[in-house]
Amino acid sequence: MSPSLYGYLREHGPASPEEIASGCLGLGDLNGEARSVVERLVADDPRFVWEGDLLRAADPLGLPLHEAPYVVFDLETTGSSAREGGITELGALKLLRGRVVDRFCTLVNPGRPIEPFVARLTGITDEMVAGAPPAGEVIPRFEEFVEGSVLVAHNASFDCSFVTAARGGRPLPNPVLDTLRLARLLVPGLRRYRLSALAAHFGVRQAPNHRALADAAATAGVFLRLVRLLRSAGVGSVGEALALRGGRRITPQKHHLAGGLPASCGVYYFLDGAGRVLYVGKAKNLRSRVRTYFSGGDGRRKVRRLVEEVASVRFRTTETELEALLLEAREIRRLSPRYNTAGRGEERRWYIGFSRAEPYPVPVRFSSEEAAEDLLLLGPYRSAGMVDACIEALGRIFPLRRCSVEGGPCLYGQMGRCAPCMGMDPREYAREVVGGIAALLRGEDGGERLDALRRERDRLAAALEFEAAARLRDLVSGIERLRLTRILGTSTTPLAAVAPSTESGMVEVFVFAGGALLAHGSFGAEDEEGLRGFAARARKARRSGSGVDEARVVLSYLRRRSGLVEVTGLDELVEAVRRVGKTGSMVQ
Fold first, then answer.
1. DSSP per residue, 313-367
2. Count of alpha carbons within 13 angstroms of residue 26, beta-carbon side
3. d(C-alpha 299, C-alpha 251), whole Å
4. Residues 440-463, buried b or exposed e (16+ Cβ, 10 A)?
5. Beta strands 506-513 and 495-500: pairing type?
6. Can you tell me the distance from the alpha carbon of 92 to that of 71, in angstroms, rounded to the nearest whole number?
7. What percentage of the chain carries pLDDT values higher than 90?
8. Between residues 542 and 267, which one has the greater pLDDT?
9. SS3 call for 97
10. How far is CA 344 from CA 64, 164, 338, 396, in A?
11. How far apart are CA 116 and CA 29, in angstroms?
């Protein structure tokens, strides 16, 4: 007779409660109570399935991923291969519907010495295992523990080879899922797939430490995350997970969440299962943009984690891309979604720095890692090349120190381009040179100096130094946008940003106060009456909250589109629109 109900049913096939009571449980006639006794015995154990009046053992391969019973296990060994080594410790956790329901852990006497390196790594010594039971006693108990369950291990072939060797060359009959293989399929692009690396990637609380039960717990944490990815990829059963092959890389798939989205401009919201907003984004085509997330995104770890948590998607359509940009900025500021802020500051940034300890400091490129308290830092900038081009250009429009300030005037001093050689003292140098550069790069000042940068940009382009000219062009554009953003963000009276429209012959007007967008309209260059009425309405509009981001968003959008923007007061709006309309028609 089989020692367990599961073993009995696997051997005899489906059986009635009466057959089970007498043939397996040895209870004899239960006077019509056999069904209730067996039902209490199997309860909601997924290893058993009722088919009418018969009970059968479920095939683990056909069980849904979230319903199957799993035993996640790990071994520590003496070292070497399964043929030459032995098991020193076995740890396992039984999982049911994502929760630990039982544990198995024991030291094992391998019957041979533990290699010194392995002893140092695991902390398990020959003395510790001397009184432990041998594998011949431990493995039968482990077989009972895993009966009817799906085995899970990291680099499972290694652990299973030792169990097979301990069973005289007979592998366990259980299906086996390998977290190493699954992770390579589901999470492509990681540098390492060791258990410790995956635990860190998924944020698993239990860290592996080369002891069997702790490593089994870490593997269980990783496995539960992988199950979520498998299910989101459309893999529904244990058999389907086992059938995955290395040639097919699985990425998170939740295309149904994008099914109801329109193919129009707007803002989308990713929500978790509790209805909390995880992320806010904008798109020209909502359906197409959202679908990219559920087809693998851009490969970033943050995107994979976001997709894993998304339970639903909301959206709001807008008439234009700019409206979507503004709505996105407002919603991010209002909601502070976790994934809109996660990962910021991770990229390397570059600064222009001046040493506070030197009497005549010169600008030097510094990375974010090199920043120190004794430096005046200006930036940050994303490109080291842009910083280098900027420093070179600054030397052409400011009299930076060019020598050791010893002896007579240097060559640059004779040309009027070295402040110490020109007789400028350290205090004046700090005010005029360092302060002037800071004001220029912060967008606080520098109309004439900005013109000098433009001339230097044009000179480089004329000299066919296109790469340096392009970097300087981007720098000038950034300074211009920063200056305009600062003006629009700090002015308490309404100011208008005027730019050519994408519609031929039209000009767009954006009115800001304190950085907040008060009004927006599109006009013909000669529509004086319409502009005066628009200006009157804009003066009466009320600003709600801080809107510096709105000025930044609009100016960035306008710069990408045409690059031509003029800021003016509302009293001068008609003349500004005429100028921009005339210039815009020539540019188009």
1. EEEEE-SSHHHHHHHHHHHHHHH--HHHHTTTT-S--EEEEEETTSSS---EEEE
2. 4
3. 9
4. bbebeebeebbebbeebbeebeee
5. antiparallel
6. 6
7. 28
8. 267
9. coil
10. 38, 49, 11, 34
11. 60
Strand partners, 87: 77
Q: Do residues 247 and 330 touch, judged by C-beta distance below 8 A?
A: no
Instruction: Report the first-to-last Cα separation within the chain, whole angstroms.
Output: 91
**C-alpha distance from residue 268 to each of 60, 142, 334 (Å):** 40, 50, 15
408/466 Cα distance (integer angstroms):
37
- Choose among 489, 563, 503, 575: nearest CA to 532: 575
DSSP letter for each residue of 7-53:
HHHHHH-SB-HHHIIIIIS-----TT-HHHHHHHHHTT-TTEEEETT
Region label for 108, one of left (φ > 0), alpha (ψ between -120 and 50) or beta (otherwise) = beta
Q: What pLDDT was estimated at residue 301?
A: 58
Classify 379 as helix, strand or coil: strand
- Within a 10 A sphere around the Cβ of 527, how many other Cβ atoms? 18
What 3-state DSSP class applies to 493?
Answer: coil
Distance of CA 331 to the CA centre of its chain: 20
Q: What was the pLDDT predicted at 344?
A: 45
558-578 burial by CB neighbour count: b if 16+ within 10 A, else e?
bbebbeebbbbebeebbebbb
Q: Peptide bond before 399: cis, by omega within 30 degrees of 0?
A: no
Our answer to whether residue 256 is catalytic in this structure is no
- Residue 141 has which token pair? 């108990």
66, 210, 256, 520: which is the annotated catalytic residue? 210
C-beta of residue 419 within 8 angstroms of C-beta of residue 395: no
Instruction: Return the half-sphere exposure (C-beta side, CA atoms, 13 A cut-off) of residue 264.
Output: 9
**Mean pLDDT lowest for which of 15-24, 344-353, 567-576?**
344-353
Burial class (CB in 10 A: 0-12, 13-18, 19+), 249: middle
pTM over 0.85: no
Distance CA 186, CA 252 (A): 8
Quickly list DSSP for 511-554: EEETTEEEEEEEEETT-HHHHHHHHHHHHHPPP-S--HHHHHHH
Nearby residues of 482 by Cβ (< 8 Å), 6 or more positions away: 442, 443
User: In angstroms, rounded to a whole number, what is the distance separating the alpha carbons of residues 258 and 290?
Assistant: 6
- HEC per residue, 250-274: CCCCCHHHHCCCCCCCEEEEEECCC
